[in-house]
Fold this protein.
Amino acid sequence: MGVDVLQLDQPRVIGHAALAERCAGKICLWNSVDTIWSSTPDLSVGALEAEIEAMTAPFRCGNGGFMARHYPQPDDIIVPDFFHSVSRRAFLK
């Protein structure tokens, strides 16, 4: 198809490990933190950090294929005030 990058707003539907198994080294995923999961009212800093670790860890095998993406319309999803600063820091880690 000529596609080099896929962007998923809900990567948890397939699962991070499954995405890495199917895509790493073949196509790049340009994902934000799952928009449905992250808009839950009980989201915590620890849960967000753990989710980002789970998103990125499967792609560290050397094959690559993951780029972190900031959700472009953050006002359209309701996330806690800490979401953007914590997610930036966790992705950079």
